[in-house]
Amino acid sequence: MTLSATSDAESIVNANAQGEKSATGYSWYVLTVLVVVYILNFIDRQIVSILAVDIKADLGLTDADMGFLGGAAFAVFYALFGIPLGRLADNWSRVRLLSVGLALWSMMTALSGFARNQVELTLARMGVGVGEATASPTAYSLISDYFPKRQRATALAIYSSGLYIGGGVSLFIGALIVKAWNEAYPVGAPMGLAGWQAAFLAVGIPGVLVALWVSTLREPVRGAMDGVETASSPTPFRAFASDLSMIVPPFTIWGAWKRGPAALAINIVTGAAIAAFASWMIKLTGNFPQWSAVGFGYYAVFSWASALRARDAATFKLIWGTPAFICTTLGYGLVSLAAYALGFWAAPYAEIVLKLPKAELAFILGANGALSGFLGVIIGGRLADAMRMKNPAGRILMIIFGVVGPIIPIWIGYTTDNSTMFYTMNFLASMLAATALGAAAATTQDLVLPRMRGTATAAFFLGTTLVGLSFGPYMVGQISDLAGTMVDGKLVGDLRFGILSLIGVAPIALALLVAAYRTVPTAERTIIARAREAGEPV
Which of 404, 370, 388 is nearest to 446 (CA)? Predict the structure, then answer.
């Protein structure tokens, strides 16, 4: 890597060829452990997909209801708690935080197995979201301190492969457990549990043991890999409690009042506008859980961002005040919208529309999802690093490819009645979409100072969750219900039409990423100068 003599940011944040540190064998060991954690993360998150048809039948739910359970019920709390937990990752032991979070989300996954109605299952999924919010802020920050910048997109891509492996394995495991349980207990099951409930228990409990393994990892020196060593906060939980109070109403009102009359007025007006929009959408769709959760989430994010601006102007400036960061995050958020929607609905679609047996589709879709995602994210990460060496905005081109590449496979795969063609096109769509993740993650990490990486990761995941996960599965389910028909007094959705509607988000994503391509080089080159302008002592 050549050091640019024209940039304060590059002279401090980048390392030259002679002085740059290298990843060690222990770095790769830590990365392996983190991949295992991320696999568990997505098994617990995505297992709802293969269980959707059974849950829907047992609890009497619609496609939109299932889209909510697979999306916003988890995503809103994952995103919101990612904010204070991301800040805690910047100020406290990341190893300890990840261990606690893993134990929490594993226990909440197990508790999902005791749910008897939509409300109980929703509460359990919210708990899973809170626990999983610790995973990526801690992992991204740890990886950035174990790997030099020239290997960072590759390392983050390898970590992100756990997303696809876990998502794929969840289908196979879920189907296997449901089948074995129902065959073993056609009647009189222990505690009256159905097969889908047993599946939640079976995948949740092992995570507690893995949490003990994670606790043995060594905490690296923060920022040492970039030559900008940064000490942890002496009072990490004070900042965490403060951040938590800034996203939970009515404390948000109190926080705004302390910042002055103008801040209070803006907070109240914004909250009222979001509430009015949510109420209108509830009347329009009839889905109270989805829009109340989304409205709560967006108001909380606004309140937190406003408070962050007042108390940490430099972090706000490099995240919320940087168009390159926002456009990259929202552009990739729309890529993730389609990816999450396909990840959730592919199995129910194959079971309902193509009439494929659960055991077969779970095995094939699970293997396809794991392999396609793994290949896509690794290839994309390597290409993104190579393109970044030649072009400061080269990684953005990789994200753009992740938008355009899946369009044709989605169209062919979800209009054919041939199962082989469906599996093949689903594989291609997943692989091509996955190429964008490493590039997007590395770009957002490169646009902030080392002490801000956990917060930047939380902000990045606001895009992938409050935009992608909150709306992807729900959008398909809601459109499916709207396009559906009544059969014997029951609504039968049109999942094919719902999934094809995902293509419509591509033009919006492209516009955002073109803007990111134009602004990323300048934003990265001026990190230090802009941080200093905002009061950062660097």
Answer: 388
**By the 8 A CB rule, do 135 and 102 touch?**
yes
Which two three-digit tokens encode residue 367?
């293997």
- What DSSP line would sit under 235-267, residue for residue? -HHHHHHHHHHTTSTTHHHHHHHHT-HHHHHHH
Q: What is the DSSP letter of 487?
A: E
117-137: pLDDT as tens digits: 999 999 999 999 999 989 988
The string of pLDDT tens digits covering residues 231-283 is 666 777 887 877 777 888 888 898 899 889 999 999 999 999 999 999 999 99
**Which class for 468: exposed (0-12), middle (13-18), buried (19 or more C-beta within 10 A)?**
buried
Q: From CA 508, how far away is CA 379, in angstroms rounded?
A: 25
Residue-wise DSSP of 365-421: HHHHHHHHHHHHHHHHHHHHHHHHHH-TTHHHHHHHHHHHTTHHHHHHHTT---HHH
Global pTM value = 0.79
List Cβ neighbours of 273 (8 Å cut-off, separation of 6 or more): none
